[in-house]
Structure formats: structure tokens, C-alpha cells
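Folding follows sequence. Below is one example:
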Amino acid sequence: MLGPVILAASRSDRMRRLISAAPVTKQVVDRFIPGEAVDDIVPIIKDLTDKGLELTMDVVGEDITTPEQAAAARDAYLLLIDRLRELELGEKVEMSVKLSMFGQALPGGHELALANVRPVVEAAAAIGTTVTLDAEDHTTLDSMFAIHEELRKDFPQTGCVIQAYLFRTEADARRLAAAGSRVRLVKGAYKEPAEVAYQQKHEIDKAYVRILKTLMEGGGYPMIGSHDPRLIAIAQELAHQAGRKLDEYEFQMLYGIRGEEHLRLAAEGHRMRVYTAYGTDWYGYFMRRLAEKPANLRFFLRSMVSKG
């Protein structure tokens, strides 16, 4: 399986330099990350919302090594929120944040990440939107869930992400489903050991369905993060069985992947949110997109060959 190999490469400085230097890389990266700055991304936001889609915005970057970099990440999100306020799009666009960007891995990182993310959540609430805390590797999750719980005391609409491939997630889903949370369920995109995570696709898919059933039957707001047509159909059936209306759950897919499906679901009346990333530190995000789906890797390799 190539996925684990690509995920390992996402942590390699040598591979980062090699791929970043390839002439074709920017062209391919633009498929998934359509800009480096807020001004680049504003036309994308306008275009997608005009088409009836909603967005969750991710300022990419995880390799934070100083408190100053963590503060800069916070300020990048605050700038984005200010632009959304000017565009009057708060109700259509939320934010996704990785707490590693806010200093979670630094000394005193739990408190630092909470201090940095709180003003972002406050500013988002002030324009009528919210923030979802992205899940990262399993070693960070206890901290993420604790910060999520703390933020929800003042901002109960704050969301979080759970990953189907982790053994712990079924228990996490039962806890969150009863709490009125906004919960995004994804398969998982980090290299995790067999001691904590399913390794086979069929096992992950079965876990995804079990967890999604728990979320649909619970009191929270499920967000289905998947491009898999079979899982999308199952999600619709589970929502129907649970008696959920179309505005009581939503689908989420990545920018640059299955764009026609985004529009189809929106046209059928579903809430469809496009996960849209931007920024200069794109390498880790890009490599996980390649690892998630063989078609993404084939697209990249074909581009390199055709432009070589």
C-alpha cells in the first residue's frame, strides 16, 4: 500500500525539498490549495458560495517551533475572519484549525494552544460563524478534546473532528453525540500504528458506518467528511432512519476533489461544505491528500511525467 509510504514522506525534509523543487508541483498543488494569501482565496469563497455551497477554511501549516509562529497562525485566522466580515459571509463560511498550528506541541503547549485559539473562536462567533478543531495524530487527541470541551462552555457551537480508523473513536462518538456537539467524521489521514488504529480499508469503512450511525442517532450535528459514494449513500439512509431533516446534518468534501458531486448534493437540498485550504506551508496537507486516494497520486505522477 502506498498510503503509509506517502505519509512517511510527508515528514521527510529531503522529500519536502525534492517535491517542492519539481517544476510541476505548483500546478498540481493548486488543484487542492488554490491560493497562498487571503486576497487569493476571496474569489474562490465568492464563487463557491454563489453556487450554493458552504465552506470551512484551513490556513495550512503544522510545523510550528516557536510561540511567535503560533501567534502568527492565530493572526492569520483573525485576518481571514475580518475579510469574511467585510464580505458578509459569516453564515456560509466557518474555520477549521489544527491546534498544532497554535503551539500545541511546544512547552506548555496545551495552555498556549487554548490561549491562541480562543480569540479565533470569539471572532468567528462575532460574525455568525464558528470553528471546528481538526484531529491530528492520536497523541494529540486528549489535549484537543479537552480544549474543545473548554471552548464549548462559552461557544457551544465549536466543532471537532473524529477519525474512524482509531479504535478509541467509537467511545468518543458516543460521548460527543450526546452532548449537542458539531462532529465531523473522517476516515483518518495520519500514519498510525496497529496498536491504536485499523490498518485495512474494509475495517475502516465498517468502523465509519458504525460511528456515523451513533452520530445520526444522537443529539449532535453530524458532518460527514467523505468522498466515497457508498458512504455518502449510507449516510443519507442513516439520516432518513434517524428522522433527520436536510438541515440537521451536512456533507463535507475537499476542494479539488469531486467538484461535480459538491454541486449535485447542494442541488438536492443537502448542506454541502467544501474544505478549502490556503497558505504557503502546503507540503504536509498536500502529501496527505495524495495518500488518501490513489487517484490523487496518479494525477500527480501523470502531471510530472507529462511536464517532464
Notes: DSSP finds 13 helices and eight strands in the chain. The two ends are 26 Å apart (CA to CA). Residues 84 and 173 are 31 Å apart (CA to CA).
